């Protein structure tokens, strides 16, 4: 037969004990390497932007699978909407303001469904974070400026005369803003920056792997330009953790 121990009267905790517990709990949170930013899942502005971006590729895919396959619509859209470095170096535009418009229109065109799906998954994942931080209008402004930054990066760093299309420049702008906000949060909580640096290194390696796997057909210049634009936007618009648009 086991011996039963009767409960004793709880010991009274002093103010010093409570302070020590509070400091221990705070320290545990401060030393945690995992941080997460608030997000607004399925924000309407993100859904509408995804729908708008998907529309051209879906129409093209359906037409190419039908008896309209020889219509040459994809070629015409590339000629009129893709980003062409040559237009910045003496080529004649097909319409007024094409040189200016292509800094945005290229982000509405893609090289196929897989290219589109990859970018839209990233947009859905990151768009809610941007909306939560800077609102719907701020998200759209960030996206547009990142697309322009991606095109500028391609223009400055690439000598290619092939057309450049895809929303990845704008998506990398969202990544740049996200990583800036993560840096802010880690600095505010005084936690390790190592996970942030590792994730940035992972982005570099991902671009390198894709560049090799696709025989250089990855516009890393646009990715870099969009990323830098996103970081600059976040730094200017949300300079502190407390600030919200």
Q: Which key phrases capture this entry?
A:
globular; Rhomboid-like fold; 245 residues; mainly alpha; 8 helices
- Biggest sheet details: none
Taken from the alpha-carbon principal axes, the silhouette is globular
| Corresponding CATH superfamily | Rhomboid-like
Q: Poorly predicted ranges (pLDDT <50, ≥5 residues)?
A: 1-11, 20-32
The CATH architecture can be given as Up-down Bundle
Secondary-structure-derived class: mainly alpha
Average predicted local confidence, pLDDT: 86
Helix count, per DSSP?
A: 8
Portion of residues in helices?
A: 55-70%
| C-alpha end-to-end distance | 69 Å
What kind of oligomer do you see? single chain
- Report the order of strands and helices: HHHHHHHH
Number of domains: 1
Provide a compact summary of the structure.
65% of the residues lie in helices and 0% in strands. It is mainly alpha-helical and 245 residues long.
